[in-house]
Amino acid sequence: MVSNQSWDWDIGHKEIDISDWSQRFEWVEELYASPDGESVAAIVHVDEAFNVCINGTLWSEAPADKIWHLRFTPDNRPYALISDGGQWTVAISGETWSEGYDYAWNPMASADGTHLAVAVQQAGRYAMAVDGKAWESDFSDIGYFALSPSGRSTAAAVQVRSVDSGQVHAFQEGTFSVAVDGKSWDPMFVNVWHVAFSPDERHVAAEVRLNLYDYTIAVDGQLWPQVYSTVWAPCFHPTSGAVVAPVRNKGEWVMAQDGRTIWPQPFVQLWRQQFNADGSRLAAIVAPKYGRWTVAVDGAPWPLTFGTMVTDLTFSPDGQRVAALAKEGAKWHVVVDGRAWQHAFEMAWRPVFSPDGNAVAAKVEIDGRYTVAVNDRLWSTACDMVWEPCFSSDDTRLLIRSLDKGIYRRSVISVNKIAE
Amino acid sequence: MHALYQFVAGPLAWAAFIVFLGGLLYRLIRLLILVRNREPFISSYMSWRYGLRSIVHWLTPFGTVRWRTMPVLTVVTFVFHLFLLITPIFLLSHIVLWDEAWGLTWWALPDVLADIMCAIVIACCVFFAVRRSTQPEVRFVTDSSDYLILLLTAAPFLTGFVAYHQWTEGAWMTILHMFSGELMLALLPFTRLGHMLLGWLTRAYMGSEFGGVRHARDW
Amino acid sequence: MAETDKDSTKSEELDEGIEVGVRRLTPERIQTVINSVLGAETGARFKAYIQTCIHCGLCSDACHFYLSNDKDPRFSPVGKVKQTIWPMIQAKGRVDAAFIRRAAQIAHTECNLCKRCVQYCPFGIDIAYMMSMVRRIIHKLGVTPLYLQDTAHSHAATMNQMWVKGDEWIDTLQWQEDEAREEIPELRIPLEKEGADIMYSVIAPEPKFQAQLIYQAAVIMHTAGVNWTMPASMGWDNSDMAMFSGDNEIMGRVKRAHFETAARLKVKKIVMGECGHAFRSVYDMGNRWLGWAMPPIPIVHAIEFYHDLLKSGRIRIARKYDKPVTLHDPCNVVRGGGLHEMARYVVSQICEQLVEMHPNREHNYCCAAGGGVINCGPPYKNKRMAGNRVKAEQLFDAKSRGAETLIAPCHNCHSGLHDIVHHYEIGLDIKFFGDIIYECMEKPENP
Ligand code: SF4
Ligand code: SF4
Q1: Strands C269-272 and C299-301, bridge-based pairing
Q2: A53, B13, B119, C411: least CB-packed within 10 angstroms?
Q3: Which of A58-72, A236-250, C400-414 has the least mean pLDDT?
Q4: Is A309 exposed, middle or buried (0-12, 13-18, 19+ CB in 10 A)?
């Protein structure tokens, strides 16, 4: 995690005029703002080539044949996928990796922003690369990429043995496994999905399918003792090393830990489970009844349910509160600890807790305009665009990045100004 | 003979009606429990409006594409079901029994008309039997149980018809008539004749899915 | 008829998926699987259908297989139930491997799950659902036809239908974007644009074989000024053959990936290309298995999307398509989604003349490709052709009344009708709506 303490938290605005970008460039793609709000960037097209414009400055003298997937690392460095002369690589702050690949995609930045990983394809073989260094082995297919919390390790579901399409019985003997830093587990499975690192990076878990009908969780290549009619993505307990996953039997979902049911109450649907920081609580998105959705904490669903969907489950940093987004009809609601905000939105983004957990903020869309809401109160300004808000470490201030009428604005306001 | 008559007209009739109504209720409840336990999703889509809309179309002669594509069978089917239901209910000699037992009376069909209707029901059964044995697509899916069910349905009418015209001596045909009617009632919930109950539900479900989700006609 | 039979039986022996599977069957396994599926995976619907069906045969005339095979009762809807489910129930699962082989052929290659029979059965008995249950049993027994099973494997491994790999997908979009820029220089296929109004999703045959369809869609989106995006992750494919192979667990997994991708991109709607089975999978099959009563993010089929664009004037037609067209109503979006009048509106806006086929709208005949039947591959092509003579007759009739082009706004229908048009030498040009709109619309001037 990147500490935001060093960011500029003085109340006030900083502005960057981007209104001339559309004249300067043939076209300007989506704008991205750095987490600290100091930079705003976009991929731009100029003279039949691509470049990135950051705060009005192009990041490279030499434009590229193609640039896409511009984002910022958590430590505020812009990066993108870039291709020149048929080779693909990653560029960070305008510097490209020296290594190139036949294709590179799905970049992932580590939590502190110091490491970047991508999936790479070279001569029809697949691997991952971290900071330009590709795995020593490669595979016939790859997916479900995972980057360890520190960014030093990577893992993915890989196809170890290639079978031609049509060889269904060879396929059913198992061709997939999990590769960690390029080294694949010994056992092979029919399928592997959703690879997850333990917080200490020493273990890796994944969903595996043993044959067409039996599914379970594998941790470091070892199977849980039980099989299920299907499973969803596993996750690790933050400290104990235990693995939990939703598992399905007889048409119902329960939560299991290391092969034993821990939430006895079955659900129509159960997924996206998540521990709080100290691992004392486990929450998940659930459907307690057909067509009704909510959040369950430690197996107990909130009484308030929604008919359309629930997403973006989030624990407060202190682990005491839970927020999520819920959709009813076409409208989105922010729900905190089982209570929905009065306001409903055309769209809402993942709720953000203040460090002490007292305030919840979210980027929201109302009438086609964007703003920020804190504790069910709306910021007075609606903009052409806002980015997701961020609290100061002392809980008192909110950083809002917005764009309106061609002006990008970094605003630090007192949380009380919205929330009171 | 008299004792047998008394038994068939009394306790057995009671039993038949109880099994009939109780059986239907049991089947209905079993089904609803099954919906709740196994397929609770079904209730999310059930709609009175669309369910009834579909039923009304299918209850209307020539109200569906299917009914229009086979006019003869359509007429036979509607007439058969209609008369099957109306004739026994509005038959004077049945109403007399109700009157004796419960003091209930209602409008009765003229005997001649009822007689013709009864004959038509029998004729329809013959038609169905012939269709079953000659039409390849029906024959292919027919087994003895299908004829038995048909016989079960035709029997009360056949015996009633014979008894009414007194082509046989004594009361035994009447007894047979009552017995066959009771048998049909009692077995109805437990055979495919139960379509009398389930047919509405399956149609209503399909009507609901087509009306509310698929936005298309199911008739 | 007899000949067709012999042909298809002979070629079916080549289906390694079925044959290897059948060889591995044991009586115990057959019995356990049948009883567990019929016992634990069915409920009130199945029971009611079995108990209500009075074996009247009224559903027969609904089925194109039955009509096309000279009314051979083995092809009638209830006839298929008689040859599959009834004996399974009667024998309490004690049926033999030969029976299972035949059941696999019936459920997978003689029924398109088109649900036309629902409109012919007085009780609305859903034979398509019954055949799906047979397919579920066949799946659990490992006897699914080879091509279909392979496609289900592709879905499971790659979340798309055609083994398209992560890089190939993005590369194809970028390639189509480049191509389209030759025509419209500032055109974009915006990837991973969070907060766009629309996520556009396609089926894997588009990037694999028909990339020009993505090109055309991009031109239409661009011209209409739509705020759209396409994902660069798994979840871009809306198709789902696992739904047809009875592999419900994979069906659900694939649909979850699709909806969660749209949710991640924060779009308000998913617009999908001209595909019917994919619509069914996201509209009332996969979503239901996952517990969503209706799609959590509204699904807009291309027909409805084009309808809205034309109606609101966001795309304008420069010159209407002048050859007379006839329109095939794809079961899954018409009987399954009620888009028939919208389709006719689109035709009226983009074409000079429509020659209707009969029957049409929700009473249309299926193309005989749907329900995963065409996906069972070449071994069954003859059977599929023989099984849809009525469609050929419909097409001939439309042609004799002047139609020159056949619009089929569904991928499966498109391929199936292509086969029929060639097999019966009908001589109709087959097009998607997108083809005609792209051809006839006003486009931004190339400076
Ligand atoms: S669903 Fe279609 S193909 Fe299958 S039996 Fe019914 S009418 Fe025939
Ligand atoms: S029409 Fe309905 S009741 Fe008659 S045979 Fe077909 S499925 Fe059974």
Answers
A1: parallel
A2: B119
A3: A58-72
A4: buried
CATH number of the domain residue B193 falls in: 1.20.950
Query: Measured between alpha carbons, how far is B75 from B67 in angstroms, rounded to an integer?
Result: 9
Q: Report the pocket of ligand 2 as residue ranges, CB < 6 Å.
A: C 53-59, 77-78, 121, 123, 125
Give the tens place of pLDDT for each residue, A217-246. Answer: 999 999 999 999 999 999 999 999 999 999
C291: which chain A residues are within 8 Å (Cβ-Cβ)?
268-269, 287, 290-291, 293
- Count of all residues that appear for chain B in the document: 219
Cα B143 to averaged position of ligand 2 atoms, centre (Å)? 14
Distances (CA, A) of A362 to A320, A324, A332: 18, 10, 12
Task: Provide φ and ψ at C351, rounded to 5°.
Answer: -125, 150
pLDDT at position B1: 73
* CA of A290 vs chain B CAs: smallest distance (Å): 6
Summarize pLDDT for A322-357 with one digit per residue, the tens: 999 999 999 999 999 999 999 999 999 999 999 999
CB contact under 8 Å between C338 and B199, yes or no, is: no
**Cβ of C117 less than 6 Å from ligand 1:** yes
Mean pLDDT in chain B? Answer: 95
The SS3 call for residue C130 is helix
Q: Where are the domains of chain C?
A: 2-144, 158-310, 316-440
C2-144: CATH, from 3.40.190, 1.10.1060, 2.115.10, 1.10.3470: 1.10.1060
Quick one: tokens of C131? Answer: 């055949």
φ/ψ bin of A183: left (φ > 0), alpha (ψ from -120 to 50), beta (otherwise)? beta
Cβ within 8 Å, pair B141-C48: no
Task: Tell me what ipTM this predicted complex has.
Answer: 0.97
Give the residue from chain A lying closest to B39, CA to CA.
Answer: A290
Mean pLDDT of C251-260: 98
* Domain coverage including residue B105: 2-213
The DSSP result for A368-392, as a single string, is TEEEEEETTEE-S--BSEE---EE-
0.80 surpassed by pTM = yes
Whether B30 is in a domain gets the answer yes
Q: Which fold has domain C316-440?
A: Rossmann fold (3.40.50)
